[in-house]
Specification:
Elements: E1 4-8, E2 11-15, H1 18-21, E3 30-33, H2 51-61, E4 67-72, H3 74-86, E5 90-98, E6 113-120, E7 130-131, H4 133-136, H5 141-155, H6 158-170, E8 183-186, E9 189-192, H7 195-205, E10 207-208, E11 212-214, H8 231-241, E12 247-250, H9 257-264, E13 268-273, H10 276-295, H11 303-309
Parallel strand pairs: 2-13, 3-4, 3-12, 5-11, 12-13
Antiparallel strand pairs: 1-2, 4-6, 5-6, 7-10, 8-9
Helix pairs in contact: 5-7, 6-7, 8-9, 9-10
Bound molecules: S-adenosylmethionine (SAM).
């Protein structure tokens, strides 16, 4: 039987297995996916899938600068990493999702993280992304207190205050030994290590993305999918590997969190899911997100153009 296909905005969703649908994928820009980890014995969806077929096809349909970002854990995850390397993919980064809660309360060690590895087929470059200050420091009260102290001591003297005002008005980063400032040029970008200016800059422009992303789950227990991933986490990974307008492939879609993240960030999405109940949930969530954007074009620049491009 042919897999069922639903088109919602610029997302294409298949009810069917990865094995049934992957042959029809002609070209996508990147893969972001969260496959069955093959260790949760109590979940009927955590079943073997054709690893060789998946990775060989990824090599076929990705461009040289395409990325594959993969969630996983334990033996199967290390095997997938090795398969990617054996096929010639280049390792770029490893991201740890610090979940801020424990998902395996009965294990000797409370498990509070998930791992994501990022490979490129050949030449992909990880994008720079700055995260709003309060989002990046949400769980770092000590860091916020230190930043407040730094700014307090700077504005307590006229020269420090003037330096901050000048930076905010002109973008000039002051430099000089007497300012406790070290100018460093890394990959053509000049960084000034003056703590007070760096702090003001972080508050204004955000903080560079980190390899550990601390984020509490956005969903309520039992809500949508037992291994649902936060939409915001996916948005942050997408920002590292792709650009608006790119097409993202997710053959293990579950409840469609990555599809929602694609809509929120202006990417196109192709997903597949083998279980009808999760497929329906994914369709519902993706449709709600798409309609929300279409009905509020002032809040989501570019949505009208995207809708017109798919004939809506
Ligand atoms: C880890 S979950 C993905 C959860 C998803 N990231 C979310 O946020 O909801 C993996 C999903 O892949 C589905 N699945 C398992 N084997 C599959 C296969 N061979 N083809 C397509 N889907 C499959 C399972 O039913 C499950 O919903």
């Amino acid at each position: 039987m042919k897999p069922r296909k639903e088109i919602i905005g610029d997302c294409t969703l298949y009810l069917g297995t990865m094995e049934e649908t992957i042959g029809g994928i002609e070209r996508v820009d990147h893969v972001l996916t969260d496959p069955p980890y093959l260790y949760i014995k109590t979940h009927d969806f955590d079943r073997e899938w054709d690893e060789q077929l998946f990775f060989e096809n990824a090599k076929r349909f990705l461009p040289d600068d395409g990325f594959i970002a993969l969630f996983g854990r334990g033996t199967s995850f290390y095997r997938w990493n090795t398969r990617l390397a054996d096929l010639g993919f280049a390792f770029k980064e490893e991201i740890v999702w610090d979940k801020r809660f424990c998902s395996s309360p009965v294990t000797p060690i409370s498990r509070t993280h998930e791992t994501i590895s990022i490979y490129t087929k050949k030449s992909g470059k990880i994008r720079k992304n700055r995260i709003p200050y309060l989002e990046q420091k949400k769980y770092d009260t000590d860091g916020i207190v230190n930043d407040i102290k730094r700014i307090k001591s700077a504005i307590n003297n006229e020269a420090g205050l003037n330096r901050i005002i000048d930076f905010l008005k002109t973008g000039n980063i002051p430099y000089g030994e007497s300012l406790n400032c070290h100018k460093v040029t890394i990959a053509k970008e000049t960084v000034c290590k003056n703590p007070e200016i760096m702090t003001v800059r972080a508050i204004r422009d955000g903080i560079k993305e980190k390899s550990v992303i601390a984020l509490f789950k956005s969903h309520v227990k039992g809500n949508v999918h037992p291994t649902e991933k936060p939409v915001r986490l996916a948005e942050r990974i997408l920002a590292l590997i792709s650009d608006p307008g790119d097409t993202i492939y997710d053959p293990f879609m579950g409840s469609g969190s990555f599809g929602v993240a694609c809509i929120n960030t202006g990417r196109k999405y192709i997903g597949s899911e083998m279980k009808p109940e999760y497929f329906e949930t994914a369709c519902k969530r993706i449709e709600e997100s798409w309609n929300k954007q279409k009905n509020q074009p002032e809040l989501f620049p570019g949505t009208a153009e995207r809708a017109a491009a798919v004939g809506e």
